[in-house]
Amino acid sequence: MRDAGAKDRRDCWAVSARTHHLAATTLAKVGESDVSWLAAERAMRAADESDDPLVLASAARSGTHALLANGRYEAAMELGNTTATWLASQVAESDPSALSLLGMIHLRAAVAAARHQDRLTAARLLNHAEQLADDLGSDENYWQTGFGPTNVILHRLSIELDLDNVSYVVENGRIDVDHMPQERSVSHRIDYSRALSLAGRGDEAFTELRTAERTAPQLVRNNPRVRETLRDLIKQSPVSGGSRSSEVFVMAQRCRAVQ
């Protein structure tokens, strides 16, 4: 009975860790960076009590999201390195959950390296993630990671955008993402729209944003990068106006990009 009670407590901590993980990642995506970090800390504290390395790795993933949102790029990379040690034995046994969680941790750490303008580290981490995706073999969704070969490609595009390689993203960004989890497909459309806007291809950029908004309105309307792109599209619109410029302005109002 005592062992059963201990297991129940660990299971409860695991549920708490997962709940706070979801809160942390959602808050990071809508620009609530400070609160996101509080939720991530609670996720990792609960995960530690669960005594499950997979739960701990999942919570650490939320930590990388929160650290990225707060601009703490070196800390995000350090957390990624630490998480790799927690999952070493499961990865060695080709546990698909461990492969997926570590793959996503590497991808988030690669984004942190890119935002820190460390191209070599970003490339190294992307290569690690690519190897794990190859070992997994296909696009899967273990632990709600959406990890697999396609997600590696999408992160590579996002990282090139962070490194100001706009032409690469424009040339390679038309990827089929309809089979991906909604959050991942929408994030890609937002990145691709940003690149198209920076390349002066406003009509295509706006089309991507409208598609993203139809898919997940709240993710789009609360995204800082969307607001930045919409402001650029307003500047690019003809002074005389027209249907597209009106639609852009209306969407900008919905997304609080303009008053």
TrEMBL record:
Taxonomic source organism: Streptomyces rectiviolaceus
Protein name: Transcriptional regulator
